[in-house]
Amino acid sequence: MAGTAPERIVIENCAVATVDAHDTEYAAGHVVVAGNVIESVGVGAAPEGLANVVRRVDGTGHLATPGLVNTHHHFYQWITRGLAQDSNLFNWLVALYPTWARIDEEMVHAAAQGSLAMMARGGVTTAMDHHYVFPRGTGDLLGAEIRAAREMGVRFTAARGSMDRGASDGGLPPDFAVETLDGILEATEAAIDTHHDASFGSMLHIAVAPCSPFSVSTELMREGAKLARRKGVRLHTHGSETVEEEQFCHELFGMGPTDYFESTGWLGDDVWMAHCVHMNDSDIAAFARTGTGVAHCPSSNARLAAGIARVPDMLAAGVPVGLGVDGTASNESGELHTELRNALLINRLGRHRENALNARQALRLGTFGGAQVLGRTAEIGSLEAGKLADLVLWKLDGIGHASIADPVAALVLGAAAPITLSLVNGRAVVEDGRLTTVDEDAVARSTRAEAQRLARIAADAS
After folding, report:
1. How confident is the model at residue 188 (pLDDT cuts 50, 70, 90)?
2. Do residues 416 and 335 lie in contact, with contact meaning Cβ atoms separated by under 8 Å?
3. Which of 182, 249, 393, 461 is buried deepest, with most CB atoms within 10 A?
4. Does the pTM of the predicted model rise above 0.85?
5. Is residue 352 within 8 Å of residue 314, measured between CB atoms?
């Protein structure tokens, strides 16, 4: 009926970290959700006389934050965890490409469910995936991920990845794992036309995402950038991840990764890149000048011995930086909230030491920073009236956190905090630490079975 008040959820008596432009915090505050948007955030109790309140949550002992935003992932890798444990990036890829080239739609759906489940259980409300392996005749792999995200109820950016430079052309992936240039461009444009929703509050965005300089042709980079800008979608790829990648670019293109990206149209405020570990001062300046974003993946960078990204220098220069889980074959935990802690700790091992990052900067990376690199700061990333109701209520009064007076420090530096409530678009996706939208036990069984099936297929083919 026209004029009917929206259903409201009222959360009171909690600490609130808004992560707004002023880092406003309340030691005891409230958040009111009306429908799928935040209606008010403030100190003390919620306003009196609110109509159509369908739920009141006593947040005593909790911290409310924006939902976490994951900016880089490879869902399919959920079913190849724990392999090539002591390899660097290039050796790890060579070891796993033959297995990955045998995935199919059922495997990808199960792997996406597992990846999304772990992230959602850990406070992620906006997920992103970069899927770039498309074996012929194996079904709708991108659609399988989109279906899994819809079932989970999380906001999703699906980056349609691609590889067209096989080993015979000087690339890293085997020839049987790559696609043709024309096929990639056609499939990517079809994915945008079929799935991308640019409206306010959209649950699904599509991005154009050639995999990396060592797995795609220069023509694909250039044509992919043109396609993305013609369609008005964002661009994503891997960049400057390892010393070996930098050497590869110099040998093949006669320039470093950042200069190569700029020569192909891949710097701009509609672009974000994963890792960016090996960046010199001029690289960082180029990213800052063009507004190019970075998905910082500290756990994966450590797992693959890639190095420590210069995140403090990027932030000081004005580079947009968010956090990424990365694929779960190089970050087996599959969780983003642990990246808050790891980003802070690992960056303190670098040149800035204790002044590298603090707890609030880490929280900003995982929330507003992620929204910034995904181009969604008008909708998500902070708790402010008018933004979408994507938020998390972290329980901090248990044994793991109760003696830490600063709730943000408790969340970032302490043990992984339990989640009492996580809302996406005003809908509960986690309640008391459990997913509400899918059967966690069924997801675990499915991912185990598909991992075993893939291992058998890969063994038979070897």
Report:
1. very high
2. yes
3. 393
4. yes
5. no
